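Handout, page 2. Input:
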Amino acid sequence: MTLIRTSILSAISTIIKVVTGFITVKIVSVIIGPSGLALVAQVQNFVRMTSLVATGGIGTGIVKYTAEFRENEQEKKKIWSNALKLALILTFLVAITVAIFSKYLSLKLLGSTEFYFVFILFSISVIFFVLNVIFLAILNGQGEIKKLTIINIISSIIALIVSVSLVITLRIKGALIAGIISQSIVFFVTLLFILKANWFKLSMFINGLDKKIIKNLLKFSAMTVTTTVTSTGSLIFLRNYIGNNLGWDSAGYWQGVWRISETYLMLITTTLSIYYLPKLSSIKDKTELKKEIIYGYKLIMPIVIFLAILIYLSRDILIRIIFTEEFMPMSELFFFQLMGDVIKIASWLISFLLLSKAIIMPLIIVQIVFSFTFIIFGVIFINIFSLKGITIAFFTNYVLYLLTIFFISIKFYSKVLSK
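Output:
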């Protein structure tokens, strides 16, 4: 699969995901309003974070080793069977924990024990999330990009159909349930593709426990689990803080702005993952590496700045198109949010340099620290500036993150970054 073809397929999948996502948001916004959107985001973030813990974050490891031993059936058998064993153990522990604390989680995350059934449902269906992650990672490692794209497209369409149907019939409860069962349905779609693959055999998932394989798989989980749990955890905490102190409508306004940022930046981050990271990883010459970093800034930053300005100028129109008039108070949140987005991408370009050269531990530490500082800044600035304070906190946090990651890059790559 060539880079161009891979990029085209990824672009198609991303566009469909964006379109179906906005249709879902529009319907959710119309029927259950800002507060409902905030609660749905709470559940989505919880599901994402907990599902990752249940897999042990080994998806990247599965992709890496499956690709490395693509022609070695015996090695793949060891990898897949041990990955499955590890994931099943973690999934069982997560499912039991979530079920036991379902009412507590409902109260703390959603402000009421009324929605505890959502967490019970998740504890039952999390196994499908986990198996889906494993199978998708195997498809990726096998180079089945076309199948991955088709599955992602089907996943977006299923999520749209399920969400719209349940929101219309059950309103807020339906919206919360939709985020759980849509991914469970997608598992069976993925399973069909796996079963039809000529390389698939059930025996490939049955093998003895190999501690070395598990250790190698877990090497890839530290960065993924840390970044996802800390960043997603900070969003859950701050959304909950806003909901409890300013009202859940206010939390919904922030979620609306965050959703727009998340969507347009997806176009940039996809490019970084597909092209920029592999490119930096492959470069050995220091002069060439420096040129590529500068080229990345010259190419990507003007695009991000242009998109941020365009979104800011058309923010009121976007609110009416994507959401409803009820969401107009979120208009005042765009300025610092979009400035923060620009600084965020500027910092990520440096982070990708460190990541490409396997300088992992500093990135993990920085991620943990700045997830906590985001919470601290968020609480402080919300109390000073009300809801606008959360976007000021976001901007401030990423300015400090950029400075920190820049100095770390100088420390580890002073010779590379100097003439």
